[in-house]
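A quick aside before the break. I want you to see a complete sequence-to-structure record at least once, exactly as it would be stored in a machine-readable document. Don't worry about memorizing anything.
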Amino acid sequence: DQVSRLHFSFETGLMALSCLLILSILAEKIGLRVGIPGAIFLFFAGLLSHISGFSFERFPLEEVHAIALSVLLFFSGLSFDRSLLKKSRQFISSVRLAVLGTGFSIVFWLIYLRFGIGFFQSSAGYLVGVESSVVSLMTVVIVASIAVQDWNAFVFVSEKIKDFKGILVDIFKVETAISASIAVAVAELSILIWLQLNPGFESYNGDELLSQIFYGICLGSVTGLVLGLMLTIVIRFLVTSNSQLILAALAFVFAGYVVTFVVVNQGGYLCALVMGVVTSLAYRSSSTESEIAFLSKSLDSVNMASEAILFFVVGLGLDAAAFLVHLPIAFYAWIGIVLIRPISVCFFFRGNNVPLREKILLASFSPKGAISMALVVTAPRMLENTFGLDVSDALTPGSFNFMADVVCGVVLLSMIFKSLYVPALYKKILSTEK
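That is the input. The structure line, written in tokens, reads:
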């Protein structure tokens, strides 16, 4: 019976993956015609599948989230190219915007969203019976998720605008690579503070918890560094054809996930990000332009496939009625993103060599995508493994759905807004300059 169930689960999962990849190609084709990313259609396809009662009970949804997110983060690190920004003399400005801008935005969102969620809770009947302290924890998780910039979300816009290949591309690569680490670090610090204020939820003592977090950060960073260097050596000396580059990269991403996340339950995402950055720096310094271009292009296909899987699977796991009910709060959170972005750019990006039109575009939108969705969905596992938090005691299923609905709503609104508004803004700026 166990063998039969395992066999059925494997066949079901394989068929689901095959259909989903084909569906992602169709969705991308439709998206290009409509003018919005095809991943949005995949999300709603998953949502509608849930409404119809169609689901894969034995399909490992949690593991799919984690592995796909690891691939996305690895690609985010790999896309980082320091030399391009050094040539344009925007490296320091880009790093400052990524670090200080992300930190400043997180502080603003923590205040903005905590006030907003509290207002909706008292006036509109959301989160009935959820304690104020738990709402604060939920706010931290939501903010940490939406703080991450997503390179894929920028790529769709850049492809819609002719000759949109300037300095902005390199700036967003830096933001994507750095914002994930900043968001996770601030989230862990905020959760530590929350646990100090709410000791009833804490299963570790203070010193033990700090050592656990420090251990996870060190393990993820060191493992990512070692695996990144090993991957570079494998590519440099063992890979005999360009087609093997993608296989080597995926093998090391999966190995890093297993070592850091499955074995010791910590540091898997940081490992993937660091591995990508290390591979980018080491591989670019000893490779030809054609090899770098091939690796990036090949991994881009896997990256897009991971995004498609995440959008569908996240949609499949949500309740459609609850998602629509929580959409006003998602809209409120998205307004906060729109408000703080130009302020962050004004304060922390001082690039004199960037054309005015690109500065305006840089300040006009903050790309959010699949990484934000995956972070909020995998947040319960992070709270359990890193902080020893009893999630079932702290977060009810309704609270978890609320967080996922808000972040997913923010991502969808952000993607639709940038896809429709930014190209129109770019055309308007060009016509004004002429």
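Two observations worth writing down. The longest helix spans residues 397-433. The two ends are 72 Å apart (CA to CA). We'll return to this after the break.
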